[in-house]
Each structure stands twice: as C-alpha cells, then as structure tokens.
Design goal:
The chain folds into three domains: about 5-85, 3-Layer(aba) Sandwich (Udp-n-acetylmuramoylalanyl-d-glutamate--2,6- Diaminopimelate Ligase, Chain: A, domain 1); about 105-310, UDP-N-acetylmuramoyl-L-alanine:D-glutamate ligase, CATH 3.40.1190; about 320-455, Protein-Tyrosine Phosphatase, Chain A, CATH 3.90.190. The chain is about 30% helix and about 20% strand. The chain has helices at about 5-10, 55-60, 90-100, 115-125, 145-150, 170-180, 195, 200-205, 225-235, 285-300, 305-310, 340-350, 375-385, 400-405, 420-430, 450-455, and strands spanning about 5, 15, 25-30, 30, 40-45, 65-70, 80-85, 105-110, 135, 160-165, 185, 220-225, 245-250, 255, 260, 265-270, 275-280, 320-325, 330-335, 360-365, 390-395, 415-420, 435-440. The strands form five sheets. A seven-stranded parallel sheet has the order 9-10-8-11-12-13-14, with helices on both faces. It has a six-stranded mixed sheet with strand order 18-19-23-20-21-22, sandwiched between helices. Strands 2-7-6-5-4 form a five-stranded mixed sheet. The chain is globular, with a radius of gyration of 24 Å. The N and C termini lie far apart (about 55 Å).
Length: about 450
Amino acid sequence: MIQKNLNDIAHIVSGEVSSPDSQTLFVKGVSIDSRTIKAGQLFIPIVRIDNGHNYVSNAVNNGAIASLWQKNHPNPPPNVPLIMVEDTFVALQTLAKAYRTELNAIVIGITGSNGKTTAKDMISSVLGNAYRVHKTQGNLNGQYGLPLTLLDATVDTEIFVLEMGISLPGEMERIANIARPDVVVVTMIGESHISNFGSRKSIAQEKLQIANHLTGDGAIIFNGDERLLEEGIQKFNLLESVKRIRFGLSESNDYMASSISATSDHTGFYLNGLFYRFPLIGTHNVNNALAAIAVAEHLGVTNENIQIGLLELELTGMRMEKSISNSGFAIINDAWNASPTSMKSAIETFQNLSEYNQKILVLGDMFELGENEVHFHLEIGRSIDPENVDYIFTIGKLAEHIALEAQPIFPQGHVRAFQQKAEVVKAVESVVKPNAVVLVKGSRGMRLEEVVEQLKSLDKFV
C-alpha cells in the first residue's frame, strides 16, 4: 500500500497541509469509507450521493491519521490533520496515477461488457504461480475502485490484474490514463449500460479507449469472434510493436478451443494439443480461459503452471457459483449482474446440464437497457427451451415479460411471475424435487443473492 508522509502526498495532489506535524505524520494506505478505515490510513472524503466531508471526524475516530479536504467545503475540523485540495475525487485519481508510476509492475487491464471478473480471476490464478499478483477485489473496478485497488498494492507487486469497468462515456479514458496498461484484454461486447451509450458499436468504441494508453511493447488480447472489436482495433493508431492476439471459438483466432466438454462442476477443452480444465460451468467461460492462457504465454508462464492455475481457480462470488441447499438440491448463483448476452449464456449452460432430474430458472430484471428493455426481456423468454427447463419463475416488472413470452410454450402453471422475493422462494419450494438444480440470475439492483440464501435454508421438500 502507498506509504508517504503528508508533505509528500500534498505535493503529489497539489494540496496544502494544515498540520505542523506533516513531515512526521506517515500515511499507510487510503480509504474513502469511514466505517471500514484502518489505523494509519488517509481518509479521502468523496462527494457523491452522500458527502464524505461529513464523516471526516468519524474516520479519524476509527483510526485515520489524516484526511483530504475539498477547499469549497466549509467548516473543516480544527483538530484533524488535513490536506486542502481543489477536488478530492481528482486528488484520489492523481495519487493513484503517481503510485502506479512508482511501482515497477506490469499492468493488465481487462474490460468488456461481460466476463471481466471471471477473466480477472483466471488471469490472476495462472500468473500467481510465477509472479506476485495484485488484483481487483470485489467490484472496485471503476472511477473510485480502480484508484483504490492501485493504492492498496504492496511495493513488491510484480503484476496488477485490473478490472476496468465503465458505465458512462469518458470514463474509460480517465481510468486508462491512471492504469496505463501494458496488456489489454477485451472479453466481449454486449448490451450492458446500453442506455448510456446508445448502441453496441458505441460501447465497443468506448471500451477500446483503453488502447489509447497501451504501452508500446504491450499487447491487446481480444475476442476475435466479435466483429465490432476487430473493426474498432483496426481503426486505432496502435504502434506496430503492439501485439494483436485474438481468442475465440472460430478458426481465424490465434487461440481457439476445441473438444469442449462440461459437467456440473468443471469445463474442459483442448488448445494446441494440451488439455485445460477449470472448476466453473459454462462453455462461454472458455473464452475467458483462452484470454488467460494468451496473457500467461505472452508473459512467459509455462504450460504446466497455466494448467495448474486454471484448475486451482478461485472465483469471485455470485458468478455461476454452485452450492447445495439444506434439502440437497443444487443452486447456481449467477446473481452478480445480468445483461441479455450473459443471461442467454447462463441459460444455455443451464439447459445443457444433464445430471439433474429437474431444472428451475429464477430470473430477475435486467437494468440499463434503454428504450428496448422490454424487447430484450421478451427475447429471453423466447430463447428458453421447454425440453430442457421444467419451471420458470420471474421476479420484477421487467422480468415479467420473460414469463409472458414463455408461458404459451410451457405447461400450465410452470411459468409464473412474481414481484416479491419471498413469493419466488415459496414457488420453488412448492415444486422442487430431489436432484434438482435452480439457476438464479438478475441485475445487481435486484439483489437476488437474498433469494439464493433463502433457497439454501430450505431443509425439506413439500
């Protein structure tokens, strides 16, 4: 983590120190949350929905050694060591950019509409046997999270594996300018946040702004089956020294998987005569594994370490995460987020599971889809195969359109729409059988992990 005295930090962020002890006050890390701040950290009050300046005293009481303070805010606390700055948000990003420059580490920046977190976990796992890796934790992948991720790294970090998420135009340019990646990975282009960008083409163009800050001897590793990425990268004025590496399922790619196999616990495939296997269901995750292999080979990791890294993969939660209820039926928790592309992929994977006698879908609203949001939900309803799914239970007003579209092709009573989570849990409980599997998926705002926890606690069959 960043460790500097107040004077040094003030110099980096063009601030003014209020404390006479600025030379001896030594900061060990930063935080923007007064509730979880640790002893010795610098508190950075951010002005968002709530005003972080209101919590500076709380932060100090909880262990903060000092705080930034935005000059246009009144009544700075008199007994707290402060660094006065023009904008605390800009200061956070400036401090992170400076710290990234100080560290002699390779930065891998991962973007894409879906698959960023899984790709991050896979890349970190295959590199972890050869390098000291620092990766994005949780959802710290955006305008605030990425700087915090960088500032939390130790000085001996050799490789950063950074998720780089955006939801508005202009955000990629800002965070890429901070991270300045040596290797860029673009997983895919979907419809996430399309209401803010207007089209998939615009999403691709915005994601590819990450390449503006790619170092000259680096590489851009991207989904070669996505036409928008291929076309977009061709238009970039990348240096000839930058490697362009394609992964995907078609023969035109540099990394192409073959003989894909899947069970309810693992997915495997062959690449150039070698077999790779990882403990995650979903053939769509093969692309993420291919990206991880491409990154690892670019950085000189052996095939053996890559195979071990994939097999020992530890995933961030709520990404096709399998658990067993107290009743004994299986639950697949994919409730972290949802877009039309990821929803279809998850359902397709679910439908292909052959080890279960009963399959139940619990699907929630997909948000931020713009004026076509109803159309996207109807599309999901049409895509579900009644031969491979027994029940569909939806939750939310938008997801109700999934149910309406699916009802005519399913037996009566096998597709139902609800607005309350407790109702969905009761519906599952009323029909679920031994050796069943339930997939739970919806957008982050639906918080469907609460449904998962309730399903886990079911301890008997009706």
